[in-house]
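Translate structure to sequence.
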């Protein structure tokens, strides 16, 4: 029996007196892409940081490959799951390649330098994100979209089995949005899993195997993408009626 990469039991996420997610039972199996949807302020980022082990849940259990985070060393957890945050803070200048190589740190000993294999992995990640030829560029000279792709390249170089991505399509134009979503889908074919926060319902419908919908009032719906997106929960969560249309075998969602 294959253990889920991540599982929650009766998980509650709260900040102060406000509950963002209550009694969530979530299973992330190998090879799945799960989209996290919800209105602004619904707690999507808080939930993702909780799933990454950066903050404890208010209630419930969280297991990474069957074990609580307390049973993992920091490096071992980082080799299993990787987190992309919404904002990338660059306090010091470095090259695109040097920044991408940060993803290799969980695989290195304290006093080890990057090997030729580490450099090969980082360069492959830059190719996968469309950044080949920019290895020597300063990250301070990049556009917002280029910087976002460097962050994704560093996460690819980290080679986790579970990717937790907070709005990974931020700053990307349409071409790279589709390219990165195709890349994420390819990763699932390698038995790796993706949990990503996004806002585009139609891209979620196209790429996600399952949807986690937060309504901003403490309730969550989790299930197959077509089931969650077709339910009335979607209208209630976003506070606006939506209609679905079927085009070339796909469902498209538009506001009424």
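Result:
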């Amino acid at each position: 029996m294959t253990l889920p990469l991540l599982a929650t039991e009766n998980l509650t996420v709260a900040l102060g007196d406000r509950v963002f997610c209550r009694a969530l039972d979530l299973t992330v199996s190998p090879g799945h892409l799960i989209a996290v949807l919800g209105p602004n302020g619904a707690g999507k980022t808080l939930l993702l940081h909780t799933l990454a082990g950066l903050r404890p849940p208010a209630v419930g259990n969280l297991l990474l490959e069957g074990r609580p985070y307390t049973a993992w060393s920091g490096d071992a957890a980082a080799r299993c799951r990787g987190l992309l945050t919404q904002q990338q803070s660059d306090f010091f200048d470095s090259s695109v390649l040097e920044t991408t190589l940060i993803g290799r740190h969980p695989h290195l000993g304290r006093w080890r330098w990057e090997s030729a294999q580490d450099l090969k992995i980082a360069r492959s990640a830059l190719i996968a994100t469309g950044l080949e030829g920019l290895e020597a560029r300063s990250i301070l000279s990049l556009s917002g979209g280029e910087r976002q792709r460097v962050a994704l390249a560093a996460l690819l170089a980290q080679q986790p089995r579970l990717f937790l991505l907070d709005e990974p399509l931020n700053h990307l134009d349409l071409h790279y949005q589709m390219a990165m979503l195709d890349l994420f889908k390819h990763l699932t074919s390698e038995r790796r899993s993706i949990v990503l926060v996004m806002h585009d319902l139609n891209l979620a419908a196209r790429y996600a195997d399952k949807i986690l919908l937060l309504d901003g009032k403490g309730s969550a719906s989790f299930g197959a993408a077509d089931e969650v997106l077709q339910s009335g929960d979607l209208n209630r969560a976003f506070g606006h009626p939506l209609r679905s249309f079927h085009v070339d075998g796909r469902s498209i969602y538009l506001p009424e």
